[in-house]
Amino acid sequence: xxxxxxxxxxxxxxxxxxxxxxxxxxxxxxxxxxxxxxxxxxxxxxxxxxxxxxxxxxxxxxxxxxxxxxxxxxxxxxxxxxxxxxxxxxxxxxxxxxxxxxxxxxxxxxxxxxxxxxxxxxxxxxxxxxxxxxxxxxxxxxxxxxxxxxxxxxxxxxxxxxxxxxxxxxxxxxxxxxxxxxxxxxxxxxxxxxxxxxxxxxxxxxxx
Amino acid sequence: xxxxxxxxxxxxxxxxxxxxxxxxxxxxxxxxxxxxxxxxxxxxxxxxxxxxxxxxxxxxxxxxxxxxxxxxxxxxxxxxxxxxxxxxxxxxxxxxxxxxxxxxxxxxxxxxxxxxxxxxxxxxxxxxxxxxxxxxxxxxxxxxxxxxxxxxxxxxxxxxxxxxxxxxxxxxxxxxxxxxxxxxxxxxxxxxxxxxxxxxxxxxxxxxxxxxxxxxxxxxxxxxxxxxxxxxxxxxxxxxxxxxxxxxxxxxxxxxxxxxxxxxxxxxxxxxxxxxxxxxxxxxxxxxxxxxxxxxxxxxxxxxxxxxxxxxxxxxxxxxxxxxxxxxxxxxxxxxxxxxxxxxxxxxxxxxxxxxxxxxxxxxxxxxxxxxxxxxxxxxxxxxxxxxxxxxxxxxxxxxxxxxxxxxxxxxxxxxxxxx
Lengths: 208, 420
Description:
heterodimer, A: alpha/beta, Rossmann fold, 2 domains, six-stranded parallel β-sheet, 11 helices, B: alpha/beta, 3 domains, five-stranded parallel β-sheet
């Protein structure tokens, strides 16, 4: 079984946070929710990473909401949130009942905005799968796995990806940096990835 | 933003299966469902407007869309006013109280009356004060209220509160009563029903129409008993004062509460998943669902049929598969969805469905595949139906199958378990 699961797992395994961001960037407006499963010790750092960059790719205001006070409180916070895209975390203490409550209140997640992303551990993911079938049906295939640390590209892989981006757009690295400095960078998620590959993630902030 | 990204976002948006279905209907994406229930429910309500109708079905089978279309069809009738309510949006259905649906329906009548811009003296035979009082009762019942009482020496009730208040130097006691849409019940159902009846009469007087409520979201009740004890009790109380209801329930309730449901004077409908393997009409319907959304033919006919079959006749899964395949095409730099993209989408959805599958669940799935029969009894059986691992078809004949996205891997997994 493990062999098969790991085979299947390849498909939902993200090579990097950038890939996740690219997928978020390709999404249309709409009530679209995603899960990213990470090691429980990495949740906080992944959330911190995402907080800084997700706003660029989701192209809207992004809020981070903690679930540490339970599902009802989380749903209330979501109802009151003004942000269009939401990052939900700290759901590790939830038991089956909390996930059932979350599931029962699923309709309140649809604020006619852009949906959001839950950053959770494998254990929380399993509880969610068993106890929140209605919410899970919204996710479809959008449950991704990220192994932090494994996402760093080698220099060779980095050069290959940059060459592919240059070929795709007909632009050089310098031209892309210049566009970003002048706030003229197209919003296609590949450009965000490009800046990150060039270690110029700082320029993403300027695009807000 | 590049034209390519705009194109892909537009295409993905067309396959959005998680937003309010009303938006898809408005965008012209609705395709008539085979064995459409809208017509049947509407005609039955036409004959008996104060009847109760229970619509059951699996997750992602399209119940909400059917309910919204039924509301639309009912409101096109000359003498019916229908109200659609997603109960889970306004109340915590994980703790649904008896009386909550009545309070909710009452709030809708209040809102309707307030929008009519009429003075109360236009409500024939109903005293203005009576309507205002009824509105107050319903609002209090729904949202709760705070009451302050001056302490009298003869006060015996709530003695401990009175003593504490006096000790604190106060001459009054304040008590908060939570509403039915909150977490506690402290209400007289008779009083609420009386108020509701008055409001109903006011609406009938100005519209001259029969009233019908369509309650959505109750299929998410994890406890089927709550559906019977709270929700059904309420709709029958509403029926007794001459108002009809359509109620959505979970597939689990159909099996777990079969006898209970049969004992109520109601019409039950079941929305099974569509047998895209043995029912050509269902297969065509699913293919049409893709075609109407993919105006530029980014998904060719061969891949369309592949995705239809892999969806297992679950509408939401079809949407997920199409979206995932389109996303793969975008990430891959392609302008067309290829077989490889479709395969990746299928694997991604399969992976999601395999997470958390237990060995006993696996054994059940294997049994369904080999014995080609299934009789749901245990909590795990119901869970496998609820999560769409096991699908029930009823046309052209009733049968249970393992979701086709999982079937090819189940044998392999069972062998893996057997080998440790």
